[in-house]
Amino acid sequence: MHAIVCIKQVPDTTEVKIDPERGTLIREGVPSIINPFDTYAIEEALLLKEKFGGKVTVISMGPPQAVEALKEAVAMGADEAILLSDRAFAGADTWATAYTLSSAIKKIGDFDVILCGRQAMDGDTGQVGPGIATQLGINQLTYVFKIQEIDLEKRTIRVERLVEEGREVVASTLPCLLTVVKDINQPRYPTFMGIRRAARMQIPTWTAADLDVNPDLIGLTGSPTKVVKVFSPPSREGECDIVEADSVEQAAEILADKLLAEKII
Amino acid sequence: MALLEINREECIGCGACVAVCPFGSLSLDDENIAVVDETCTACGACIPECPVEALSLPEVEKAAVEDISAYQGVWVWVEQFHGEAGSISWEMAGQGRRLADQLGTTLTACVLGYNVEHIAKEAIAYGADRVFLVDDPTLEVYRTDPYARCLVELVRKYKPEIFLLGASSRGRDLAGAVATQLYTGLTADCTGLDIEPETRLLLQTRPAFGGNIMATIKCPNHRPQMATVRHRVFEMPVPDPNRQGQIVREKAVMLEEEIASKVVDFITEEGEVNLADAKIIVSGGRGVKGPEGFKPIRELAEVLGGAVGASRAAVDAGWIPYAHQVGQTGRTVRPDLYIACGISGAIQHQAGMKTSKVIVAINKDPEAPIFQIAHYGIVGDLFKVVPALTEAFRKRLNK
Fold first, then answer.
1. Which of A50-54, B69-73, B212-216 is least confident?
2. Are the Cβ atoms of B266 and A168 closer than 8 angstroms?
3. A259–B360: do the CB atoms touch at under 8 Å?
4. ipTM field
């Protein structure tokens, strides 16, 4: 079993504060973390390795400091890690990111599954996973909630996907790409041995020159979408109407009347 | 890897760029000259702010794609489950109609499924001028590959300028595959769509960073301009059964034996509700104190005909399944009424519900952040307030 996990380093959005005057993000002192959804992908890959043997390779595209996210994945138990970092990759949208990551996966070679988080916490698009699968011409299974079965002999997989109406059980062939939701597992903490191994590990950096990529299709140049404006969301007007009364029952009656007057029930 | 170029000779150290950077990527160095760090996303927000034009992004050469003026018309994908169209599709048909009218062009709906001609007729009632109906057993249940290939072929054949899909699990799955094959831009989870009059380009506005910032995105040189659109952001149009339109039958492009995936089962748990569709959601958080604490929450939801939601704290504690989680790591919802019970309202929770039309907060702590975004509130013990509210509604709604 060779599982490749694609991860992203993101600012810890639980620490992000908004400057109330400028309406911009205050990133000062905000730590960078592995995108929380990706930690479930890493854990699932480690569980597959424990069950089937083999190895887990983690890749990430980002600035040089994204190597820290890869080291954390190694500390959790990943065997190999590769950083894709080049000024030419910068400014990539989801199309160019998926193209670059899939080029790296082609260079890595044989694999059984690719695992990604459901979406990144900063961009929230969830488009890179499907993009990679399509670039590689393999099946994609998104929003996976549970892997029911993998048969490496028959090259099949069966998973439960979380969709709006419930859970869909889908069978597919291997290799395929999975994006996983939070409930799939409980990510482990890095071990002491893992942290030592990660600290000593030399993580290779692949640049555009190391990949078989068309320079017109990477980074800002290769990105079909352009961000033209960034602004803070309009704040809600008006204050909260706190209902007060002599008793809880009375307050509830008043609130019920107010809500019925809104004509939403 | 920052792409922003700063001309150190020109910079006067006024700090205007530092102030507007949404990502906090700019600062002034020891010599009072602007510097950019690796967190820059090349969004360009700072460029017009610089009074001396010292900031620039590298010019992107216009990609030599085929003539984009050949692409015309607005398309929407109509999502169906068990032969029934999702309301999200009609919301998009309403938006698609508005954009098509602004552009002076037509609206086309793509209906894929098996025995779904009735949906094609509905699409016309909801505003489509033309419907591509692909009715085939291989398309009965949504699967990425046959759906994506079919839409890619239709786009290549008929060349729309705009293509909208719902930002549902299926819509996001499908859109990512289609846009990748077509090598075109895709903007996820839009909450605003408009046409830029001078260029006729689609302006796609979406939240990022958990709803902390909004970004407007264009796709200037690739077609179609694709976007997924959030549920319940746009009004549901009123269908007109007398509207006339054309139904064009198209063929599926994959044979069953060429499709590598199969949907073998569908699991719905009793009482499981579709949060995305719910008009009313009653949610419980840390304050419900345990799995049995959701009982009064469920009772209120039942009287109101609503769904039960939960905060991350309640889900992580194992009191209720993840499918109920509202917030940044759960579902994003936009009901008409959201009643938050015993939820403090951390920004991650707010990211998933703050655009609800009416928000009610019930919390013991008057300082809880949820009151800052709530329209109505009661400060008090949810175990007293919620049953009282259930009773008040039961009386008024005669239940």
1. B212-216
2. yes
3. yes
4. 0.92
